[in-house]
Sequence to fold (612 residues):
Amino acid sequence: MTTAAPSGDPTAESGHVGDWALVDVETSGLSPRQHRVLSIAVITVDAAGERTGEFSTLLDPGCDPGPVHIHGLTAERLRGAPTFDLVTRQVGLMLQGRVMVAHNAQFDYDFLAREFAVAGRPLPVSRRLCTVALNRRLGTPTGDMRLDTLATFYGVARHRAHDALDDTRVLAGVLRHSLAQAARLGVPLPLVACPPRRGFGYGPTAPKVPCGYRNPGRLAKGGPLVQGMKVAITGETTVPREELVHQAVAAGLNVMSSVSRLTSLLVTNDLGSGSAKAKRAMADGIPVVDEGHFRRLLENVQRGVAHEVPGGAHSTRPKGAPIAGPPPLLLPSATRSRPARRARGRLTGRRVLVLGGVHADASATRARVVELGGAAAVNLSAAVTDVVVLSGGEADRRMERIETLGLAVHRPGWPDTTAVEPDSGAGEALTAPAPAAQVLPRGGVADLPVSTDGTSWTVSASWAQQTSCEVDVVAFSLDQDEQVARDEDFVFYGAPESPDGTVHLSTDGPMEQAITVDLAPVPDSVRKIAIAAAIDGFATFGEVGAVEITLAAGISARPVLQSTLDAATTERTLLLAEIYRRGSSWRLRVVGQGFDHGLDTLARDYGVNIED
Fold:
């Protein structure tokens, strides 16, 4: 079998020459923390597209195989297979020095990293490529980005779904066609650097018991403790810390791992210890008591006000949710592919790329495109229909490619200076259009349906491929006071998944990251998931340019919503979107609020303990 491109070597034109290691794993579940690999297949391909090796095997996970109805791997089939540690050497040799390729590569990479760590070996992967992310960047016109959908689109035969070896062979065909399309469009490959991992984010921790009471505020001088008060403890204690925490939780207090402006009191036997908690308490005027005083207060804790039950008769507007404004967009069910009806404008169905111009002019042009019903693109893809060239845009390196592709190119002032009718035929996309996503403006709101089996929603963020600085997408699971219950509710590159698995970060490329939230199991105490982007260093979002966010029912699904955030100038941190409770349901709101400070300040404001 060969995976050579239909014409020439697309890897060279896409800026990469090297070997590939195509990987697929079948697993006992979705969380690398809790589940194991049941089977693995690896196919190696050289820079010319020729297959150079193939390996596959079933594996004995030493645990329940999980959803047999999906992968068909029963305990009987796996009995007698090797354990993963026995194949790490062979798999490692096939991965060494090659770019790892997988469909939803973050998933396969995380499982491999975990299995190699358990076996006591480093995972020899320095770069990876995700074919989901690549086809999103290409704008491939399919209803979703699942492997079987892309295989059908590219004409790649598939014989046995959820069979690791067959999936890897199908992946080889999808990669071949995707690389050819990337070469045709001049789209850089979304290669992700994979630095060596020493661990796997936060290790196993005892789950924090959610507090059932609202925060009544700070401890009054001479007053009693009240259920729901947020308590932080720092320094050495006479009673073991675990026992002291247990007593506080049993009394109905909310024990936090950090100090914020909403902390009710700090317990410490040494206020001058210099700890981050002590410094923050002194700076914010948080009441401080020693351990003995705190234990006496625990003897007479006053009854607090219970949290409202989501959807109950006394539910109120979540903090930060809009009081008034345009009605929310009602999305179709995640199980339906037909998009909700949308208002038509002069640019309905158009996806417009703006090149050149100072930030204010480019931002205004993109805003006008959205006002007229179009979508503002941040990168060239097969979905782009029109290009507006502002001052200096002629020198953009993509112009030669745009002219070769025959895209409609417009001067400044378009479309107001030219009569344009929707679907008039001018500026057609490079391929047959896929179902268009709804366009939400800044401040726009959409209702999110939740199915009984737990719908996951993915918010993806992408920015211009020419960006030289590093941008990180993060998420915070917040209570009604807009505070995290524990530091682990802050999801970022170093801890890409919340302990309960409801919020997950995936890095799909150097210019694209995504947050996936499984809404059904989100604890009742979590009222909002805030999603933000932050720049590492002193660059600003005025230099990065527009950030496009999309919403899809899962990492491989077609986006149903999109929005382009373009107002930031001097800001280094940008609040992208919020997923928040509204009664018994959930909503997404596009925010686009920027801050001049860094991510550390934003995290502290949300109650995360960030050391100085």
In short: The first strand starts at residue 20 and ends at 27. Residues 314 and 467 are 47 Å apart (CA to CA). The first helix runs from residue 10 to 13. The chain is about 20% helix and 25% strand.
